[in-house]
Amino acid sequence: MKRRSFLSATGALVVSFRWPADAVAQGPLPGSLAKQPLIDGWVRIGTDGRVTVLTGKVELGQGIKTALLQLAAEELVIAPERVSLVTADTERTADEGYTAGSHSMQDSGTAIRHAAAQARTILIGLAATRLALPVAQLSVENGVVRGGGQSVRYEELLTAGQVLHVKAAPQASLRDPARHTVAGKPLPRIDIPAKLSGGAAYVQDIRLDGMVHGRVVRPPSPGASLTQVDAAAVERMPGVLKVVRDGRFLAVIAQREYQAVTAMRALEKAAQWSEQATLEDVEPVYDAVRRSPSQDFVIRNQGRAPAAAAGVGTRGVSATYRRPYMLHGSIGPSCAVAHLVDGKTTVWTHSQGVFPLRKALAEMLGVPEASVHCIHAEGSGCYGHNGADDVAADAALLARAWPGKPVRVQWMREDEHAWEPFGPPMIASARATLDATGGVASWNYEVWSSTHSSRPGGAGDLLAATHLAKPFAPTPPKPLPQPEGGGDRNAVPLYALPQVHVVHHFLPQMPLRVSALRSLGAYLNVFAIESFMDELARAAHIDPVVFRIGHMPDARAQEVMRLAADRFGWARFKRSPMRGRGFAFARYKNLAAYAAIACEVEVRRDSGELRVLRVVAAVDSGEVVNPDGIRNQMEGGIVQSLSWTTLEAVTFDSWRVTSLDWGAYPILRFPQVPEQLDVHIIDRPGQPFLGTGEAAQGPAAAAIANAVADATGVRIRDLPLSRSRLRAAVGP
Amino acid sequence: MKHRGPHERSLRKRLLVVVAVVVLALVAWAVVTLMWHAPIAPAPPLSRAFFSVERVVWGEQLAVIGNCSSCHTARNGAPYAGGVPMETPFGTVIGSNLTPDAETGIGIWSEAAFVRAMREGIGRNGQQLYPVFPYDHFTRLTDADLGALYAFLMTRTPVHAEEPPNRMKFPFGWRRLVAGWNLLFLDPDPFEADVIQGERFNRGAYLVEALAHCGSCHTPRNVLGAPKRGKEFAGGEAEGWYAPPLNEANPSPVPWTVEQLTQYLRTGIARDHAIAGGPMQRVVASLAQAREADVAAIALYVATKMGSYSEPRLQNALASLRRAARPLASTPAPTGDAQLALGASVYASACASCHDLGRMQSSNGALRLPLAVALYDADPRSLLRIVREGVIPEEGSTGRWMPAFGSALTDEQLTALAAYLRRTAAELPPWPELAKAVKESRSP
Amino acid sequence: MTAPITLQLNGRSRQVNSDPATPLLYVLRDELALNGAKFGCGLGQCGACTVMIGTEAAFSCLVPVGVVGERPVKTVEGLGSKHEPGPMQRAFIDEQAAQCGYCIAGMIMRAQALLERNPSPTDAEIRRHMAVNLCRCGTHMRILRAVRRAADGLRSRT
């Protein structure tokens, strides 16, 4: 920890600032402060008294901008209206990697809170000197330090120099949560009013002088190669500026957007491809998954297997659960703008990681990283690694082909459906034994999954770069290590079980490109584990909620389960024909938010229609910064998971993906949304923030499957719980 | 001539009165016995266990071919719980609750009551049912099939749902009048196989005539709402859509093969033919669950009814295929006709981007319109419905998607578009009273 | 050169130079720099592009600008601004009915068309009417509450 001395411009005032001795103690800097230790890397005060907060995280629609702003406003004791936020920008903000894995509050939130608190401490210290009063006699209100009848504004203290350009200390004096006025309060989201009234809010809304439009003609199938393209006629179409071809990367640039779209259609017709059947048909995909060479990891092995002579009353239960390829299905297909001027390429992108993207783009373009500047602009919800990085690569290539003017590339719906990296298919196999009292005696779980991350990385992780005449090769996938995990995320149950053996079979190869989809492996693993817990509870003739609580030592987990069951009216529930209830619990990654979900469903025998009547959720996210944000993420996660669980599967034949629009890949519409959905939040002031954005996916799926089993007596273990599956399972 | 005395005259008068009274009494007796039927006593609701699984499955197979759910399951409603309004020239009839609910469904109907309803159109309470319920077809079902259907319906999930009352025009609210309709139009004879044709044909014939009731929509009706004799499958209507002929007059430019018809009936789409729209969507959704062999039999029967195309028709088919081989917008619109020019411009700007591409995997590429049956129909209603409402898969189902253009086009533009397509894609004479049909096709 | 087309947009006459076959969506966004209507699919399946033409909600991605004629076009910009939101927008803000927010302008226009035609819809009617618009983030419950709130607000003001 360094000391800095400040000299005022006039020399009349010398401020020498020293951290209190105990703060100098060595220790890791909390959150992302470790990556960017300077306080003004996070918080800056302008001469107009406005505060700028910088974060390396990005707004995905999860409300993070508002939450971070609340934290900063709270610790700096300044009105939120006077704070603005800058999100990830490779030339301005800290490198916080990806906004993913529900880390934003833990990483960026913690850093911003600490930086803001320490900034406040610094400013109060400066004010103390300025006003010649001890710190203890000073108070702060809305950016003004007061004491002894005097006051000084934050911006007036800036005359002492770059007062915040100082490294943070490991400890900060944070404001007492009991006295919070901004953080923990439901502050309306700052981004919503503009989004409702046509304000520019998304990367799709960026308009720059001289901007032109590009569209890419993608190969008709992953294995296709471009044999011939007669571009002359396309080049003569109105507004067309250039046709770009590099290997099997084929694109057109035009003056106006619709001209680019029409030219793209014409270029599609003018191109000839030679295709090969490189995929296997849908149904054997699970066989293919099982047959694929795998790297096997034992990720938990504890306790002893039960004695061979297990005794009277023990039972064995086993089951296999599966999920297909799934789409992110962003409602606004991916979009980027790139501009090459004087050797510098600026890219506006909704990528979740602008720093890794910059690295990959630089590699693809063959230029130094400093020649690429990536600025985050919001896209529509991505729910993980969608086409955002790929379209940035498209735009960068087209900017290179048309230097001097910004080039905007918008993916079409079919592009996004066919080429976004999918959520990978997974298989989980569970085996357990129950002892005579109905407790779990042994637990064996194996999960087969490919990688859940093919994010850049390198140039080869950008779709266009793999289609160039000199293609880049994708980064060989490696499993994400525990405790976070990829396909093995949440594969280890949080329950305390006498014997647990969990194996992750990592499959390095998949016929279709796959990557991170909200909650990664947790969706299938929690679906499997919580369905299996239900099957065990039934075999033991014990109530499913009681069964879970009985195996759960974690008090916060118990509380969240009790709250959900209680608010649902679990004990009072009356079953009727084809109506049932289901329950599920998980702690996301066994590290982040706790969520318990109870639901009531009705199954219609003849149509196989599943109606979700009522969902009640309870969540513990640690200290709550924006309660509405948490509620929104849980509601949204539940509804999205309902869509995944009852409807969704990518379809393909041996040549290509065949689910190319919403007609072929339906998602939930208003008539199928639950009639009632309530979220109850347990606030834990002072506790660390726990990421909530992905906490609902798995438990919602299992709660529904458990409710279907309760309603119909039939257990379905293959996702989605589609109408045809339900009809076939339930019978006439 | 003998002169009749006053005594003889009054005797003659009395005799006439007695004869008149006897005749009237006979007529009244005939009318009453026709109109009045005894109610059948309520039977206690039967549990599922009473029916064997095989019989229930058999009944389910019949129900999907009979497409009961089209009229008895409301949109997003519980299966077979009724509530679907059916517009007829005599008023609006609401499909009844067929679930085995004791109070609002058919839970207390005995099998005899069910069979009487299906064969004679008489409800359990003795009242006539309106023939929008096609018992004039179901009357030909075998006893065994009726028993299986009964088993199927009695094992559905009971739903307590009271439909709203029918809204009949005066005097058709008086159900007993239907007795007259039955007398004139209900043919009680059982199904007769055609000895010349093979087993599959006869299976298809039975399924179509006794169960699938295609004629209910595809046969024209007379002023009393009965199928016109001698005009079977000559074209009819349903829910504001025109149901084209399925006989030799069928308008499809390219002839249907049995394989194509089978595929169409099971999936809603077949090569060189348009996708199923409007009420056919629900038929297809039902038939998708039927045994393929049964659907193939239906297809064979229908294809036989269509007959093979004459040489001139085959020439026209080739011409249609040739027209479909190139984008419609590349054909210059006939000059001098402002309406056709408007239609051409509407087509080029609103439709060509999908329909000139030809059908593709994505909904983005759609059938080339010289092959679209709706343009060859004698009646423009189906084309107008398709353009206004689109062809959209039901929530949660997959399928190709034609969006609705009702809010995009004015009536004038739609009229012009329809006229243009009739002329340029189908090369047929204009539809008469097109503008009127366009106006009437606006949903309320 | 195509002749300029005059649109009645949000109560004003606007002249545009796009080819008449250009879908209204691209004219609004690319030529008139309006952000409300969004590109979601271009196929009439998602409703992110929803505007009002006359009294009905329409998919602007499918309506060629040359076909609009004199029918008034209304976009979300015509309902109110960031600082002075209209009643429907106000209802969405009060319910915080947005996550990523991309679908919301389309939702607002779809709901606007409903309430202009039927100021007291039942919950079932709202659900059915909104069914053509997709939301991927799962904000449906809030959207329904926002429309309900706007409808109730209309009733209390009349």
List keywords for this structure.
heterotrimer, B: 444 residues, mainly alpha, Cytochrome Bc1 Complex, Chain D, domain 2, three-stranded antiparallel beta sheet, two-stranded antiparallel ribbon, 17 helices, 5 strands, 4% strand, globular, C: 158 residues, alpha+beta, Ubiquitin-like (UB roll), DNA polymerase, domain 1, 2 domains, 6 helices
Describe this structure in words.
The complex is a heterotrimer of chains A (732), B (444) and C (158). Chain A is α+β, with helices and mostly antiparallel strands and 732 residues long. Chain A has 16 helices and 26 strands. Chain A is globular, with a radius of gyration of 28 Å. Among the domains of chain B are: 48-185; 325-440, Cytochrome Bc1 Complex, Chain D, domain 2 (Orthogonal Bundle), CATH 1.10.760. Helices cover 44% and strands 4% of the residues of chain B. In chain B, a hairpin with a 2-residue loop joins strand 4 (236-238) and strand 5 (241-243). In chain B, helix 10 (258-267) packs across helix 11, helix 14 crosses helix 16 (411-424) and helix 16 packs across helix 17 (434-440). Chain B starts with 5 loop residues before the first helix and ends with a helix. With 158 residues, chain C is an alpha+beta fold. Chain C folds into two domains: 5-78, Beta-grasp domain (Ubiquitin-like (UB roll), Roll); 87-157, [2Fe-2S]-binding domain (DNA polymerase, domain 1), CATH 1.10.150. In chain C, 38% of the residues lie in helices and 13% in strands. Chain C contains six helices and five strands; from the N terminus they run E-E-H-E-E-H-E-H-H-H-H. Chain C has a three-stranded antiparallel beta sheet, covered by helices on one side. The model of chain C has no long low-confidence stretch (mean pLDDT 95). Chains in contact: A-B, A-C, B-C. Chain A binds chain B through residues 265, 413-414, 577-578, 604-607, 609, 646-647, 651, 656, 658-666, 669, 671-672, 722-723, 727, 731-732, and chain B through 53, 56-57, 59-60, 69, 73, 76, 78-80, 152, 155-158, 289, 353, 357, 361-364, 393, 395-401.
